[in-house]
Design a protein that fits this description.
- The complex is a heterodimer of chains A (423) and B (343).
- Chain A has 423 residues and is mainly alpha-helical.
- Chain A contains 14 helices and seven strands.
- Chain A has a domain of 285 residues: ABC transporter involved in vitamin B12 uptake, BtuC (Orthogonal Bundle), CATH 1.10.3470.
- Helix content of chain A is 63%, strand content 7%.
- Chain B has 343 residues and is an all-alpha fold.
- Chain B has a single domain, classed as ABC transporter involved in vitamin B12 uptake, BtuC, CATH 1.10.3470.
- Chain B contains 15 helices and two strands.
- Classes of the chains: A mainly alpha (423), B mainly alpha (343).
- At the A-B interface, helix 6, helix 12 and helix 14 of A face helix 5, helix 12 and helix 15 of B.
Chain lengths: 423, 343
């Protein structure tokens, strides 16, 4: 039987994702309308502005003289969209890799924190006055990935050796990471004391931090030393190269990190689809016992898969920290980074395909930028985008089921099969 | 000592009730990862409810009447509304997990993302800031039970136990303990409870005996949502000073840990909640904690970082899991959608 275009698996998957997005957007718009109509402080024109910004805020060019929204290509917002896509693509990859091995990696937030913590420690501790910044950058990035990988391995080990559910283990390790990171920064000397109003934050890696000595007392200062002080060492001044992207998207935060994320996505696609390792990982995901029977080390592969997943989430944190101008609020023990959870949405929307993750990551950050425009231009705020994202995740929980139902309707009714690989 | 007991109970009670919420869902066969989301939603609805009552002038009327006890009825009303809201919210999980046989973990994760986003969106639109607070007064003014309300003079010195259980406490604490006992009895000593639990162990066998598994699981998840919503409201009143900001400082996940720590059984869960509540209390106030009142700050002198105490609940849960995972009493059919043809 010849397949028509709409019956191809890839096309069908794409259409299912598109439908999820549409329903998510409609849900978001309904919330905007309902809130707008029930709230007397929000004018009807604001509701219309809100809807337009949620759908295409990236193209916003601010308000004109009479206060109407104008739209067009805005390089700064486009650049920021790519910048925000970088950690989302990487945490999305993290979830996707684990998913292929049959593991639900809800631990991306913890791995992300481990990554950003290790990276900031390395980047801000090695004096760039004696070591070249690019070497410090490389070391910091590797440290971040390694920390993420190790943190990811913990639930992997618990799963493979002790048969502890990885979801529970990941939730526990998330909060452990949040406490540990807070602890580590609490006792460190990396808290921003140069900028008086930023004491809750860690130094930005692009800052120039000078350790000086004045009358036997050691202190820290910015580029300008106090009078009579002798310079001991300079730290900081480490940031990801812009690679010309800042000229392409003037006024935005984008840097080479997005290219690294895309390279990782392609690399993972090749590993998963073209190598023995990838085949083994996927075999463990399809049926762990069958894989074991076929001579695949199921335990080793579970740990390996969580390790790779952790490395990706760690890289997300690492690259975010190394952007240079991003700030990290260190007392994070009460909350986990949202980007880790959004990674789940990114991966599910892309049906766990690494190449698809690039696009769904960009889409999620597109929503993020739209949300920021909503905050800046109207009485609404960016949290509506998280509502949309959560609706998309909710739908993806049973999208595979709906898809298989659609197939069953078209084909002849088979005997009720429950052999479907668990979603 | 009095402070320690009082504060520990304050933290332990929401944990206890929300962990029991988890038990109801999981015993019926549905994994409820969305406890955190349901708590957040319940907390928000509770605070909104309180604000409505403030704006109606009910609280001021109570204050004018002088009998602060009657305030507690309003607290109970807010808790009931929160429970209903949590119940409604949990229907989203129930529908996906039971009727559509969706992946329960992903469904729960979706709700955990939805609740804080929706709440924060609404809070920021209505309150014009990141937190929704009472428009007048606070928890301590309105809802706290103080010794004067029992008829003691201001100068009267209560014993340690009296100080711990009667002064500066919230009635919600005792209400929740009572509710916990009642719900635990329902789950373990009634026909309904037995049927609910059977659906989480072997739903096909239950169905063969005429139990409507789908209906039972819906009820399980809805009770779970109601208890979690109520727990969120209690959290907002007693530990968050009646405010909602789209988070419950991870209490929902901590409750999940308590549930696993307690091996899905009420008594160990109650003990686990008190233990974890103690850690929370120590982490929050270890530097000023003077257990026997002799001016010696034992824990502060121990020199451990607050983050160590914050980590302990999660660490202990992992260790307990490591030792018990082989003999875990987790419901056998949890997480598996009910399929009548699997009999």
């Amino acid at each position: 039987m010849k397949e028509s275009f709409f019956q191809r698996k890839g096309v069908k998957t794409f259409l299912a994702s598109l439908i999820s997005i549409m329903i998510g957007m409609v849900a978001g718009i309904i919330v905007i309308i309902v809130v707008g109509l029930t709230n007397s402080t929000i004018a009807d024109s604001t509701i219309w502005d809100g809807i337009r910004l949620v759908v295409m805020g990236v193209f916003s060019k601010g308000r004109d003289a009479v206060g109407n929204l104008t739209f067009g290509f805005n390089p700064a917002f486009f650049g920021n969209m790519l910048f925000r896509a970088m950690p989302l693509i990487l945490t999305g990859l993290s979830v996707a890799v684990a998913y292929k091995t049959g593991l639900f990696n809800i631990g991306a937030p913890g791995q992300y924190l481990a990554g950003i913590c290790a990276t900031l420690f390395v980047a801000l501790s090695i004096p760039t006055s004696s070591v070249a910044p690019w070497i410090v950058w490389t070391l910091a990035f590797l440290a971040g990935m390694l920390a993420g990988a190790l943190w990811g391995c913990i639930p992997g080990l618990l799963k493979s050796l002790l048969n502890i559910n990885e979801v529970i283990a990941c939730i526990m390790t998330n909060w452990l990471a949040a406490c540990l990171v807070t602890w580590a920064f609490d006792v460190s000397s990396l808290k921003n004391v140069i900028e008086g109003t930023k004491t809750g934050y860690i130094y930005k890696t692009a800052m120039i931090i000078n350790d000086y000595e004045l009358g036997g007392v050691v202190g820290v200062a910015g580029p300008e030393l106090p009078e009579g002080a002798t310079l001991l060492a300079t730290r900081g001044n480490v940031a990801t190269a812009k690679m010309g992207l800042d000229r392409l998207f003037a006024g935005s935060q984008v840097n080479g990190g997005i290219l690294i994320a895309i390279v990782f996505a392609i690399l993972l696609y090749v590993i998963m689809e073209k190598t023995t390792l990838g085949y083994q990982l996927k075999a463990c995901g399809s049926n762990r016992h069958a894989a074991k029977y076929a001579g695949i080390h199921d335990k080793r592969n579970i740990v390996l898969s969580m390790g790779i997943a952790g490395a990706m989430a760690g890289a997300a944190g690492s690259l975010y920290g190394l952007s240079g101008n991003t700030e990290f609020f260190w007392a994070t023990y009460q909350s986990l980074p949202a980007v880790g959870f959004t990674g789940i949405a990114v991966s599910l929307l892309a049906v766990n395909n690494p190449i698809g993750v690039i696009f769904s990551g960009v889409f999620m950050s597109f929503l993020n930028v739209n949300g920021l425009q909503l905050t800046n231009q109207t009485a609404y705020n960016e949290n509506i985008t998280d509502v949309i994202i959560s609706v998309i995740v909710y739908l993806s929980a049973f999208s595979m089921l709906i898809r298989s139902l659609m197939e069953k309707k078209k084909e002849k009714p088979k005997t009720a099969s429950s052999g479907e690989v668990k979603a | 000592m009095a402070f320690l007991i009082r504060q520990t109970l304050l933290y332990a009670v929401p944990l206890m009730i929300v962990a029991l919420a988890g038990v109801f869902a999981e015993r019926s066969g549905v994994i409820n990862l969305a406890l955190e989301g349901m708590m957040i939603f319940g907390a928000y609805i509770g605070v909104v409810c309180m604000n409505v009552m403030v704006s109606l002038g009910w609280f001021d009327a109570v204050k004018a009447s002088g009998n602060m006890w009657s305030m507690q009825w309003y607290v109970l009303a807010a808790m009931a509304v929160s429970a209903m809201a949590g119940c409604l919210f949990s229907m989203l999980l129930a529908f996906a997990a039971i009727s559509l046989k969706a992946d329960q973990t992903i469904g729960g994760t979706a709700l955990n993302m939805m609740a804080p986003a929706l709440v924060l969106f609404l809070v920021r639109v209505t309150a014009k800031q990141n937190i929704l607070q009472l428009s007048s007064g606070d928890s301590a003014t309105w809802f706290m039970v103080k010794k004067a309300m029992w008829g003691f003079e201001k100068s009267y010195k209560l014993s340690v136990m009296g100080e711990a259980f009667l002064n500066k406490v919230y009635l919600t604490t005792y209400f929740c303990i009572l509710l916990f006992v009642v719900m635990a009895v329902i789950l373990y000593k009634t026909r309904f409870g037995l049927r609910l639990r059977s659906c989480g162990e072997n739903p096909q066998a239950s169905a063969s005996l005429g139990i409507d598994v789908i209906r039972m699981r819906y009820i399980g998840v809805m009770i779970s949502g109601a208890l979690a919503g109520l727990g969120g409201c209690v959290f907002a009143i007693s530990t968050a000073n009646c405010s909602a900001n789209g988070e419950v400082s991870g209490f929902g996940f901590l409750a999940l840990a308590v549930m696993i720590f307690g091996n899905w059984k009420p008594l160990p869960i109650a003990l686990g909640a008190i233990l974890f509540g103690l850690f929370k209390c120590i982490a929050a106030s270890y530097s000023t904690l003077d257990v026997n009142g002799d001016g010696y700050f034992a824990l502060a002198n121990l020199g451990l970082n607050a983050n160590f105490y914050r980590m302990l609940p999660y660490l202990i849960t992992l260790i307990v899991l490591a030792f018990t995972s082989r003999s875990s009493r987790a419901p056998k059919a949890e997480g598996i959608p009910y399929d009548p043809s699997m009999r």
